[in-house]
């Protein structure tokens, strides 16, 4: 098991009604919500714990550490495992108030495990954790939530890892960036119909600082939270992929073409240009993570619509791989940075805020 987990750090570099439930695995009381309705305007059914739960967050990347910080500030004990992690990851975990623990210790102590890692590592980690839980007589009420950007088929594969185990499974997806003061991403969650109690327990983490939304209703189950993530990211990160592709293609024709593109966007599509100045720089350090995410979105589209349509996001996977290989100072990165800086100067010169 331990050797299997060591693979993870290197890989890390590589219209239904919706109701919202607060609470956790050890239910003690029904309480009033701080808000009478969910974000989608539906009534809340609320369940809370007598004391803060123990939650494992794997791993302490930018998102994982920010989620952990939110939970520790709410009084939760947050575990993680730092075996093989970089110095920057260890520092993030320390600042977030996370406690280093082995997978076996996590399996025994945690009420929830939140897997927040690159898509390519999601199955490997679930398999490693299952082995640790089996070998250590882990908490029989533990719930494992896969919060990664994976396709419905991949998350169903991960759910099947826990077949025959006492570990309960939640399909979760994070919509938005890392939580900060004044900002909360949404944790959408779905589960098999027979695991509705587990789903309600996970959504109960709203009592401890997370913004959670349960996907319930006709046909809802494992795979639906991930399908939502694929659809949302396919639009947002797909837009960034599209604009990045066309900037690079215009420049490949000639730098004058790229400059003309920038000026025409400013004249006829200023909203798009302003968005490019924010989204492209933000994409650069995350391009390596988005490769696997685009591949998962491509698989999701292929399963639903066919192979032809799946080529769109497969192409974006190639694009983000190209950008990652050009970091930090390759030609493509230089082209993108120049376009953004010239766009910012043009926007400032026009008096647009």
Can you walk through the features of this model?
By secondary structure, this protein is an alpha/beta fold. It folds into two domains: 2-222, Rossmann fold (3-Layer(aba) Sandwich); 231-349. Helix content is 54%, strand content 12%. It has 13 helices and ten strands. It has helices at residues 2-13, 62-73, 87-96, 103-109, 122-135, 152-161, 196-203, 224-253, 255-268, 270-283, 287-305, 307-326, 331-349; strands at residues 20-22, 44-46, 54-58, 77-80, 99-100, 112-115, 143-146, 168-175, 186-190, 211-214. Strands 5-4-3-6-7-8-9-10 form an eight-stranded mixed beta sheet, sandwiched between helices. A two-stranded parallel sheet has the order 1-2. Helix 5 links the parallel strand 6 and strand 7. The longest helix is centred in the C-terminal third of the chain and has 30 residues, at 224-253. The termini are far apart.
